[in-house]
Amino acid sequence: MNGSIRKKGRNNWITFSWQDSYDTAEFKLPILNEGRLTNTYRCKITGEDGNAVYTDEVEIIQIKSPEIIRQPQNAEGKIGSTIVFSVEAANVKNYEWQYKEKGRNNWITFSWQDSYDTAGFKLPILNEGRLTNTYRCKITGEDGTAVYTDEVEIIQIKSPEIIRQPQNAEGKIGSTIVFSVEAANVKNYEWQYKEKGRNNWITFSWQDSYDTAEFKLPILNEGRLTNT
């Protein structure tokens, strides 16, 4: 019994006569260079009667270090919502999403959290602490080495707050009046009106500036003077 090698692109087989265990059922081969990763291997087995058979050909599948292709990004959220951190990497054996509390240096793995060991980590924001923590992912590669992503945070999204209310405006048919409001934590504005004697509010979606903090309204008819 002896182990043999065929180099890439060649047809001749070479016996590992210089290698310990080449003549045993279990062959131990140090991978000393790139060539050994590209070679093909087999075993020649000679029987008691002198006849020989050959095993199937086998190869070495190279295990590689992890490589981060796309880093996770900060996420926006608030208490009660769920955010998602995601990473894209190659040659991965496993993921571990971790957090660090504000003012501390030790990292803790979210081993109790669903999806903590996936590329896309879903995190429910259960309390204020999760809004102030820092997050990262430990990525272990096929070769057992680990890399860490950039640290990311949750950017808190807040409810809107009106700082200054709009005021009544004076005008007449043919003029243009301006309503304005000052607010914080704003995603968008929508100026609306309600006709006299009715309860439904209608958004001025056809009117320029209806989606800004300062709304300019031409008074085209009597109705606009009686609306709210």
Overall description:
The chain has three helices and 21 strands. The strands form seven sheets. Strands 7, 10, 11, 13, 14 and 15 form a six-stranded mixed β-sheet that branches. A hairpin with a 5-residue loop joins β3 and β4. It is elongated. It starts with a strand and ends with a helix. By secondary structure, the protein is mainly beta. Helix content is 7%, strand content 38%.
List the helices and strands and how they pair.
Elements: E1 2-6, E2 14-15, H1 34-38, E3 40-46, E4 52-54, E5 58-59, E6 67-70, E7 75-77, E8 82-86, E9 88-90, E10 92-100, E11 108-109, E12 120-124, H2 128-132, E13 134-141, E14 146-148, E15 152-156, E16 161-164, E17 176-180, E18 182-184, E19 192-193, E20 202-203, E21 214-218, H3 222-226
Parallel strand pairs: 7-15
Antiparallel strand pairs: 1-2, 1-3, 3-4, 3-5, 6-9, 8-12, 10-11, 10-13, 13-14, 13-15, 16-18, 17-21, 19-20
Features:
six-stranded mixed beta sheet, mainly beta, 3 helices, 228 residues, five-stranded antiparallel beta sheet
What's the alpha carbon Rg, rounded to whole Å?
A: 35 Å
H/E element string?
A: EEHEEEEEEEEEEHEEEEEEEEEH
Helix content: under 10%
Shape: elongated
What fraction of the residues are assigned to beta strands by DSSP?
35-45%
Distance between the termini: 97 Å
Quaternary state of this entry equals single chain
Number of helices: 3
Task: Determine the mean pLDDT.
Answer: 90
Main beta sheet: 6 strands, mixed
Given helix and strand content, the structural type is mainly beta
Low-confidence stretches: none
Please count the beta strands (DSSP E, at least 2 residues each).
21
